[in-house]
Amino acid sequence: MDTSKQCWRGIILLGGPGSGKGTQAVLLAQKLGIAHISTGDLFRENIRMGTELGKVAKTYIEKGELVPDEVTVRMVRERVNRPDCTNGFILDGFPRTVAQADALNQVLAEMHRSLTAVLNLQVAPDVLLERLSRRWTCKACGAVFPEFSAPPRAGCKKEVCDGELYQRPDDKPETQRHRIEVYREQTAPLEAYYAERGLLVEIDGENSIERVHQLILDAVRCVEEEDRHTV
Ligand code: ADP
After folding, report:
1. Which CATH number covers residue 112?
2. Cα-to-centroid distance, 57 and ligand 1 (Å)
3. Is 155 within a domain?
Protein backbone atom coordinates (compact mmCIF):
# COMPACT_ATOMS: atom_id res chain seq x y z
CA MET A 1 0.00 0.00 0.00
CA ASP A 2 1.03 3.64 -0.43
CA THR A 3 2.01 4.78 3.07
CA SER A 4 3.52 8.12 2.03
CA LYS A 5 0.37 10.15 2.64
CA GLN A 6 -1.07 8.23 5.56
CA CYS A 7 -1.75 9.57 9.03
CA TRP A 8 -0.20 8.14 12.20
CA ARG A 9 -2.18 5.34 13.88
CA GLY A 10 -1.87 3.89 17.35
CA ILE A 11 -4.11 0.88 17.87
CA ILE A 12 -4.39 -1.47 20.84
CA LEU A 13 -5.79 -4.99 20.51
CA LEU A 14 -7.33 -6.16 23.78
CA GLY A 15 -8.64 -9.66 24.40
CA GLY A 16 -7.99 -12.82 26.42
CA PRO A 17 -5.27 -15.36 25.55
CA GLY A 18 -6.43 -17.11 22.39
CA SER A 19 -8.85 -14.33 21.39
CA GLY A 20 -7.10 -13.86 18.04
CA LYS A 21 -5.07 -10.73 18.80
CA GLY A 22 -1.91 -12.02 17.11
CA THR A 23 -3.66 -13.27 13.99
CA GLN A 24 -5.65 -10.06 13.59
CA ALA A 25 -2.67 -7.82 14.38
CA VAL A 26 -0.64 -9.37 11.53
CA LEU A 27 -3.49 -8.83 9.05
CA LEU A 28 -4.20 -5.28 10.21
CA ALA A 29 -0.54 -4.24 10.27
CA GLN A 30 -0.17 -5.42 6.67
CA LYS A 31 -3.32 -3.64 5.59
CA LEU A 32 -2.48 -0.32 7.29
CA GLY A 33 1.29 -0.40 6.71
CA ILE A 34 2.15 0.07 10.38
CA ALA A 35 4.29 -1.90 12.83
CA HIS A 36 2.98 -4.92 14.73
CA ILE A 37 4.32 -5.02 18.27
CA SER A 38 3.60 -8.21 20.19
CA THR A 39 5.06 -8.20 23.70
CA GLY A 40 4.64 -12.00 23.84
CA ASP A 41 6.72 -12.38 20.65
CA LEU A 42 9.35 -9.92 21.94
CA PHE A 43 9.68 -11.93 25.16
CA ARG A 44 9.88 -15.24 23.28
CA GLU A 45 12.55 -13.81 20.97
CA ASN A 46 14.58 -12.73 24.01
CA ILE A 47 14.14 -16.17 25.59
CA ARG A 48 15.37 -17.84 22.38
CA MET A 49 18.40 -15.56 22.25
CA GLY A 50 19.15 -16.12 25.95
CA THR A 51 19.25 -12.39 26.83
CA GLU A 52 19.02 -11.12 30.42
CA LEU A 53 15.49 -9.87 29.66
CA GLY A 54 14.62 -13.33 28.31
CA LYS A 55 15.88 -15.03 31.47
CA VAL A 56 13.70 -12.81 33.67
CA ALA A 57 10.63 -13.13 31.42
CA LYS A 58 10.88 -16.94 31.16
CA THR A 59 10.26 -17.54 34.85
CA TYR A 60 6.96 -15.64 34.73
CA ILE A 61 5.72 -16.78 31.31
CA GLU A 62 6.13 -20.49 32.10
CA LYS A 63 3.85 -20.08 35.11
CA GLY A 64 1.26 -18.10 33.15
CA GLU A 65 2.04 -14.98 35.23
CA LEU A 66 2.61 -11.48 33.86
CA VAL A 67 6.17 -10.23 33.50
CA PRO A 68 6.67 -7.26 35.91
CA ASP A 69 5.41 -3.92 34.57
CA GLU A 70 8.75 -2.18 34.88
CA VAL A 71 10.52 -4.76 32.65
CA THR A 72 7.69 -4.80 30.10
CA VAL A 73 7.31 -1.01 29.87
CA ARG A 74 11.05 -0.53 29.34
CA MET A 75 10.98 -3.04 26.47
CA VAL A 76 7.93 -1.40 24.82
CA ARG A 77 9.33 2.12 25.22
CA GLU A 78 12.44 1.07 23.31
CA ARG A 79 10.42 -0.77 20.65
CA VAL A 80 7.95 2.03 19.77
CA ASN A 81 10.83 4.42 19.13
CA ARG A 82 12.28 2.28 16.32
CA PRO A 83 12.06 3.62 12.75
CA ASP A 84 9.40 1.13 11.57
CA CYS A 85 6.93 2.87 13.92
CA THR A 86 7.01 6.18 12.01
CA ASN A 87 3.47 5.60 10.69
CA GLY A 88 2.23 4.11 13.94
CA PHE A 89 1.80 0.68 15.51
CA ILE A 90 -0.58 -1.99 16.66
CA LEU A 91 0.04 -3.14 20.21
CA ASP A 92 -0.78 -6.83 20.72
CA GLY A 93 -0.54 -7.98 24.34
CA PHE A 94 0.27 -4.54 25.76
CA PRO A 95 -0.93 -2.92 27.95
CA ARG A 96 -2.02 -5.78 30.20
CA THR A 97 -2.38 -3.85 33.48
CA VAL A 98 -3.66 -0.40 34.44
CA ALA A 99 -0.09 0.59 35.42
CA GLN A 100 1.09 -0.34 31.90
CA ALA A 101 -1.75 1.71 30.37
CA ASP A 102 -0.70 4.73 32.46
CA ALA A 103 2.92 4.24 31.38
CA LEU A 104 1.82 4.00 27.74
CA ASN A 105 -0.01 7.34 28.07
CA GLN A 106 3.24 8.87 29.21
CA VAL A 107 5.26 7.33 26.35
CA LEU A 108 2.68 8.57 23.82
CA ALA A 109 2.68 12.07 25.35
CA GLU A 110 6.47 12.18 24.97
CA MET A 111 5.99 11.24 21.29
CA HIS A 112 3.25 13.91 20.91
CA ARG A 113 0.85 11.17 19.80
CA SER A 114 -2.49 9.83 20.99
CA LEU A 115 -4.27 6.52 20.53
CA THR A 116 -6.60 6.00 17.56
CA ALA A 117 -8.65 3.15 19.05
CA VAL A 118 -8.66 0.20 21.46
CA LEU A 119 -10.26 -2.85 19.86
CA ASN A 120 -11.62 -5.39 22.33
CA LEU A 121 -11.86 -8.90 20.84
CA GLN A 122 -14.67 -10.56 22.75
CA VAL A 123 -14.48 -14.35 23.04
CA ALA A 124 -16.17 -16.46 25.74
CA PRO A 125 -13.80 -18.23 28.23
CA ASP A 126 -14.79 -21.76 27.13
CA VAL A 127 -14.03 -20.85 23.50
CA LEU A 128 -10.65 -19.41 24.57
CA LEU A 129 -9.75 -22.67 26.35
CA GLU A 130 -10.75 -24.74 23.35
CA ARG A 131 -8.69 -22.58 20.99
CA LEU A 132 -5.57 -22.58 23.18
CA SER A 133 -5.56 -26.37 23.42
CA ARG A 134 -5.47 -26.65 19.61
CA ARG A 135 -2.94 -23.87 18.95
CA TRP A 136 0.47 -24.54 17.40
CA THR A 137 3.18 -21.92 16.93
CA CYS A 138 6.17 -21.70 14.55
CA LYS A 139 9.48 -21.72 16.46
CA ALA A 140 11.20 -19.66 13.78
CA CYS A 141 8.74 -16.88 12.86
CA GLY A 142 6.11 -16.99 15.64
CA ALA A 143 3.19 -17.58 13.23
CA VAL A 144 0.16 -19.15 14.93
CA PHE A 145 -1.80 -22.09 13.52
CA PRO A 146 -5.10 -22.31 15.34
CA GLU A 147 -6.63 -25.29 13.56
CA PHE A 148 -4.65 -28.41 14.56
CA SER A 149 -5.58 -30.84 17.33
CA ALA A 150 -2.36 -32.88 16.81
CA PRO A 151 1.06 -31.69 15.60
CA PRO A 152 0.88 -31.05 11.87
CA ARG A 153 3.41 -33.11 9.91
CA ALA A 154 4.74 -30.29 7.74
CA GLY A 155 6.56 -27.28 9.18
CA CYS A 156 5.48 -23.65 9.01
CA LYS A 157 4.43 -22.57 5.56
CA LYS A 158 3.88 -18.89 6.26
CA GLU A 159 5.70 -16.67 3.77
CA VAL A 160 9.14 -18.22 3.17
CA CYS A 161 9.53 -19.76 6.61
CA ASP A 162 9.86 -23.52 7.16
CA GLY A 163 10.24 -23.51 10.94
CA GLU A 164 9.25 -26.29 13.31
CA LEU A 165 5.78 -26.07 14.86
CA TYR A 166 5.44 -26.53 18.62
CA GLN A 167 2.87 -26.12 21.36
CA ARG A 168 3.85 -23.15 23.53
CA PRO A 169 4.60 -24.29 27.08
CA ASP A 170 2.15 -21.68 28.35
CA ASP A 171 -0.56 -23.11 26.05
CA LYS A 172 -0.54 -26.39 28.05
CA PRO A 173 -3.83 -27.11 29.89
CA GLU A 174 -2.46 -26.52 33.40
CA THR A 175 -1.33 -23.00 32.47
CA GLN A 176 -4.27 -22.04 30.24
CA ARG A 177 -6.86 -21.61 32.96
CA HIS A 178 -4.47 -19.58 35.05
CA ARG A 179 -3.73 -17.21 32.14
CA ILE A 180 -7.43 -16.65 31.57
CA GLU A 181 -7.83 -15.94 35.29
CA VAL A 182 -4.88 -13.50 35.22
CA TYR A 183 -6.52 -11.82 32.23
CA ARG A 184 -9.81 -11.42 34.08
CA GLU A 185 -8.16 -9.98 37.17
CA GLN A 186 -5.42 -7.77 35.74
CA THR A 187 -6.26 -6.96 32.11
CA ALA A 188 -10.07 -6.89 31.88
CA PRO A 189 -10.19 -3.65 33.99
CA LEU A 190 -8.60 -1.96 30.96
CA GLU A 191 -11.94 -2.30 29.15
CA ALA A 192 -13.49 0.23 31.56
CA TYR A 193 -10.28 2.29 31.54
CA TYR A 194 -10.44 2.83 27.78
CA ALA A 195 -14.25 3.03 27.63
CA GLU A 196 -14.07 6.01 30.03
CA ARG A 197 -11.63 7.65 27.63
CA GLY A 198 -13.97 7.06 24.65
CA LEU A 199 -11.49 4.75 22.92
CA LEU A 200 -12.97 1.26 23.36
CA VAL A 201 -14.59 -0.50 20.39
CA GLU A 202 -16.15 -3.95 20.93
CA ILE A 203 -15.45 -6.58 18.27
CA ASP A 204 -17.17 -9.99 18.17
CA GLY A 205 -14.11 -12.26 18.12
CA GLU A 206 -16.09 -15.49 17.71
CA ASN A 207 -16.52 -14.94 13.96
CA SER A 208 -14.20 -16.34 11.27
CA ILE A 209 -10.71 -14.80 10.90
CA GLU A 210 -11.78 -13.02 7.69
CA ARG A 211 -14.99 -11.68 9.24
CA VAL A 212 -13.20 -10.39 12.37
CA HIS A 213 -10.62 -8.69 10.12
CA GLN A 214 -13.45 -6.96 8.24
CA LEU A 215 -15.16 -5.89 11.49
CA ILE A 216 -11.84 -4.41 12.67
CA LEU A 217 -11.28 -2.50 9.41
CA ASP A 218 -14.82 -1.12 9.58
CA ALA A 219 -14.26 -0.05 13.21
CA VAL A 220 -10.97 1.73 12.44
CA ARG A 221 -12.53 3.54 9.45
CA CYS A 222 -15.52 4.53 11.54
CA VAL A 223 -13.34 5.95 14.35
CA GLU A 224 -11.26 7.93 11.86
CA GLU A 225 -14.39 9.22 10.13
CA GLU A 226 -15.74 10.46 13.49
CA ASP A 227 -12.40 12.13 14.29
CA ARG A 228 -12.46 14.01 10.97
CA HIS A 229 -15.91 15.36 11.77
CA THR A 230 -14.97 16.53 15.24
CA VAL A 231 -11.73 18.33 14.26
P1 ADP B 1 -1.49 -14.59 24.03
O2 ADP B 1 -1.26 -14.29 22.57
O3 ADP B 1 -1.91 -15.99 24.27
O4 ADP B 1 -2.40 -13.59 24.69
P5 ADP B 1 1.12 -13.54 24.48
O6 ADP B 1 1.95 -14.21 23.46
O7 ADP B 1 0.66 -12.16 24.21
O8 ADP B 1 -0.11 -14.49 24.80
O9 ADP B 1 1.90 -13.50 25.89
C10 ADP B 1 2.48 -14.65 26.46
C11 ADP B 1 2.97 -14.37 27.87
O12 ADP B 1 3.95 -13.30 27.83
C13 ADP B 1 1.89 -13.84 28.84
O14 ADP B 1 1.15 -14.88 29.43
C15 ADP B 1 2.78 -13.10 29.86
O16 ADP B 1 3.43 -13.99 30.73
C17 ADP B 1 3.85 -12.47 28.98
N18 ADP B 1 3.43 -11.11 28.56
C19 ADP B 1 3.09 -10.71 27.30
N20 ADP B 1 2.75 -9.41 27.28
C21 ADP B 1 2.86 -8.96 28.56
C22 ADP B 1 2.64 -7.70 29.21
N23 ADP B 1 2.19 -6.63 28.53
N24 ADP B 1 2.88 -7.61 30.54
C25 ADP B 1 3.32 -8.65 31.24
N26 ADP B 1 3.53 -9.86 30.70
C27 ADP B 1 3.31 -10.03 29.39
Report:
1. 3.40.50.300
2. 10
3. no
**Domains of the chain: total:** 1
Asked if the structure places residue 131 within a domain, the reply is: no
- Hey, how many other C-beta atoms are within 10 angstroms of the C-beta on 35? 19
What are the catalytic residues?
21, 96, 135, 168, 179
pLDDT of residue 84: 96
Task: Check pocket membership of 61 for ligand 1, CB cut-off 6 A.
Answer: yes
Expressed as residue numbers, the domain containing 121 is 9-126+199-230
Domain assignment present for residue 68? The answer is: yes
CB 88 within 8 A of CB 34: yes
**Is the N-terminal amide bond of 169 cis, ω within 30° of 0?**
no
**pTM recorded for the entire structure:** 0.87
Give average pLDDT by consecutive 10-residue segment, the chain, 231 residues. Answer: 66 95 94 96 94 96 95 97 96 98 98 97 91 82 71 63 79 84 96 98 96 96 81 59
Q: Where are the alpha helices (DSSP H) in the chain?
A: 21-32, 39-49, 52-61, 69-80, 98-110, 125-133, 173-182, 189-196, 209-230
In a domain, 180, yes or no: no
pLDDT digits (tens, 9 = 90+) for 51-78: 999 999 999 999 999 999 999 999 999 9
